[in-house]
Design a protein that fits this description.
By secondary structure, this protein is mainly alpha-helical. Helix content is 78%, strand content 2%. Helix 4 runs parallel beside helix 7, helix 6 packs antiparallel against helix 7 and helix 7 crosses helix 9.
Length: 250
């Protein structure tokens, strides 16, 4: 009888622990694995809970595999940009997207493909929202840089000494071609922004900025070149998808 009472107490404690754990999971809206291998959660009602049929699980595997790579590549892009342009405040948004990505990957390792797909698609949308903000800023920066470049070209274009010097005239013509290409890249960036392909838009805006910087550096006076290089060094590193490490200041 005594042993029976002890066993009863132990079973009661075990059930209480399981109920507490289940409640904690539900409080966090995390999917709970059922004995039959399916998942349930208080996060959705039955009208909104993701489809977990066999076909849905099968299709989810392809989506998960694609977004696992795509989202990670775009996260790296945002990481580089947010580090290079820290004053824009994109680092916090990168961190949030990174945490969302980790959550999706966790479900993948748990073989919960339905919820992994759901989280990856949420993560994709969050990443795209950040890329949109970046593309808007890049469009402004690129337009300003092109305007600065065209003013430099126009100043030299009306300089009679430049026109009379064959080597200087040739240099000016080469940079006029670069400027035209820079505008083409800018137009392509605007086009892809309109299509909501913000990743492509960012790459085109980067390319356009690179052409403008090349023109400005090539046409700069010797005494202006050093300061010009310093002014645009972050943009040049960013164009190559590198994080520019600014020198430490004492």
């Amino acid at each position: 009888m005594k042993i029976f009472k002890i066993m009863t107490i132990l079973m009661s404690l075990f059930i209480a622990v399981m109920v507490t754990a289940q409640s904690a999971n539900n409080a966090n809206d995390e999917p709970v694995r059922n004995p039959d291998g399916s998942y349930s959660t208080s996060r959705f009602n039955e009208a909104e809970r993701p489809d977990d049929s066999y076909l849905a699980k099968f299709n989810a595997q392809d989506v998960v595999a694609r977004l696992m790579k795509k989202n990670l590549d775009q996260l790296h892009l945002i990481k580089v940009i947010s580090a290079n342009f820290g004053d824009k405040g994109w680092s916090g948004e990168y961190d949030a997207c990174y945490e969302g990505y980790k959550k999706a990957v966790q479900y993948t390792y748990q073989r919960n493909m339905v919820y992994a797909r759901y989280e990856f698609e949420l993560n994709k949308k969050a990443i795209n929202d950040v890329l949109k903000k970046i593309a808007v800023e890049y469009e402004k920066d690129t337009k300003a840089l092109l305007d600065e470049t065209i003013q430099q070209i126009l100043t030299l274009h009306f300089n009679e000494k430049i026109q009379a010097d064959p080597s200087k005239s040739k240099q000016l013509m080469e940079n006029q071609v670069r400027l035209r290409i820079g505008y083409v890249q800018y137009d392509d960036g605007c086009f892809y922004s309109m299509l909501e392909n913000y990743e492509a838009a960012i790459y085109y805006f980067r390319q356009s900025k690179a052409y403008s910087i090349t023109v400005l550096e090539d046409l700069a006076k010797p005494e202006e070149l050093a300061s010009l290089k310093q002014k645009y060094q972050v943009h040049k590193a960013d164009y190559m998808n590198r994080i520019f490490n600014k020198p430490a200041t004492n």
